[in-house]
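Still learning. Show one?

>
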Amino acid sequence: MKEQLELLWELQKIDLELKSIKEERDRYPREMKKLEEKQKIEKERIHKEKEKIESLEKTRRQKEGHLNLEQEKIKRAEGRMSEVKTNKEYQALLSEIDAIKEANSRMEEEILQVLDEIDELKKDLSKREKEVGVTLEKIEAEQKKLQEKIAHDEKAWTEQIERREVLSKQIESKLVKLYNTLKEKRQGVGVVSAKNETCQGCFVNVPPQMFIEVQKNNALIRCPNCNRILYWEVDRNTK
């Protein structure tokens, strides 16, 4: 029985390791999604700032195009100056030219304001791109680290599953069945150690005589409270 208990104890340790790996594997997709979302947010910030600059550039081009058309109007109006025959027509033409020039002056001011805004945004964008670049590098490093963990855990999972299969074949089928039943009912733990006359599964005291028997590891003894199989783990560091 001693050998069977040792094998059961090893099986329990493997199952706890598998449980831990599974919890990590379940967590990885959430972690990866968070990193991808952070990436997306950072890239969208840059994209929106570029869109704003492009929008202002479009506004500038439109205003400059309109200004050019208005300047052409002035040239045409000035070209008609020699054709007017009356003072009234001359004054009307002058008023028209002045009105266009005044509107053009306002348009030029607006264009300058847009250019100033574009320059400021480009400076901010350049700074932001550097900051985002650093942030994205950190995110990519975290993603790489996470991918390495995933690969490591996949390998560990496969190795532990193989060990479990080999180990299970060495344990009596009735013990494996009992262990699996207890494990399902007790949050994945069917075998626990006993220390200082206490079950380490439910932390309830084990009767002194029972604890003495547990330390021999010669019989299948179960905790009177949680019903788990009790095992005395020898401390390898003590003599």
The chain has two domains: 28-150, 175-231. Helices lie at 2-79, 87-170, 173-185, 208-214. The two ends are 24 Å apart (CA to CA).
